[in-house]
Design a protein that fits this description.
With about 120 residues, the chain is mainly alpha-helical. It has four helices and no strands. α3 packs across α4 (about 105-115). It is rod-shaped and about 115 Å long.
């Protein structure tokens, strides 16, 4: 036969076990939420990586621009362009404006005007 104190101990043990079960269910629910959030974040990262890859591919295949800084390393201006630039500069045009018009660096215009290039 069990005593009152043993019965109290058994009842208390049931309450503890019940509390542990509730805590376990809460932790499982929290874990599910974290896994869902992790999956969403992974999908976002994947989408961003796909966008970055597409941008890199676009740049790689569009590097054959007809003018500008992304053009392959060959002369961007002809001797006639250089003469026109000098004439425009001496006629009052600003180097910055000429650089924008010919899609070159302003330093290039400066060097043409000074006679370093062409």
């Amino acid at each position: 036969m069990t005593t009152t104190s043993e019965m109290d101990a058994i009842e208390e043990a049931h309450w503890v076990i019940s509390g542990i079960g509730d805590l376990l269910r809460e932790l499982q629910e929290e874990n599910r939420k974290i896994q869902d959030e992790n999956l969403n974040l992974r999908e976002q990262v994947l989408k961003q990586n796909q966008i970055l890859l597409q941008l890199k591919l676009d740049r790689a295949f569009n590097h054959y621009d007809s003018a500008g800084p992304h053009r392959s390393n060959r002369p961007k201006l002809s001797k006639a362009d250089a003469n026109d630039i000098r004439a425009a500069y001496h006629g009052g045009a600003k180097q910055k404006d000429l650089a924008e018009k010919y899609r070159v660096n302003p330093a290039t215009i400066s060097r043409i005007v000074q006679g370093v290039y062409y």
